[in-house]
Amino acid sequence: MKIGLDLGSRYVKAVFMEDGRLVDYRCYDTLAFYREYGRKVDGELVVDYERLGWPTGAAITSTGYGRNLVKLAGGQVIPELRAHTRGAIFQTGLSDFTLLDLGGQDSKVIKVAGGRMVDFRTNDKCAASSGRYLENMAAVLAMDVAALGECRDEPVELSSTCAVFGESELIGQIIEGHPIEHLAAGVNRTIVKRVEPMLRELYSPVVVFTGGVARNQAIRAMLEDALPVQVILPAYPQLNGAIGCAV
């Protein structure tokens, strides 16, 4: 049994693999995970696996936003980019593509050729193209994130790609009287505008889309409208980094 652990900024994802097959997985709110199951000992994160109900004696490999904060005791740590590349190759069976990962608080674009990462771009200093940005905008529009992800028609032009100033601009557009669905489409469009330059720079005709934001149908469709690409959604987009740790 191998356990892959992605210590993300919004969610901690754990996958359980046996003989190269995904047999189970769990997702936890990040703050709740650290509060209820983790404690820091001698500078390392000690996780209470028994209380979590995880199998004992399994090899554990971790990655993710949290690996920069504290090392997991008793486990191997691998870089995020390597984990996500391995996960995407395992899930799709492809060896040549561009990986787009939009997580809770950052974005990553990785060029993969011949089954190896050959170049990458990341944005972890701004939340504008992340799940956190979509959650904030959905709250302003009084929608849930899933409903926002269905809006792609007649997007209202939003000039700000900043997560903070974008809220102010969106409120101003609500006052202008635009339909909520068109504003939601505009929010989705800002994500595409934010990542489009990176995708053009590391272009491949196939884009593998992972991370929690990959479940947004409108963004997937807008990417295919903006670029001559086929966007592929793997079976477990949000678990991709954890899967990459366990393969």
Automatic annotation (TrEMBL):
GO terms for molecular function: iron-sulfur cluster binding; metal ion binding. Transmembrane segments: none annotated. Its cofactor is [4Fe-4S] cluster. It comes from the Bacteria. InterPro entries: ATPase_BadF, ATPase_NBD, CoA_E_activase_dom, Dehydratase_Activator_Redct. Keywords: Iron, Iron-sulfur, Metal-binding. Residues 3-246 form the ATPase BadF/BadG/BcrA/BcrD type domain. Coiled coil: none annotated. This is Activator of (R)-2-hydroxyglutaryl-coa dehydratase domain protein.
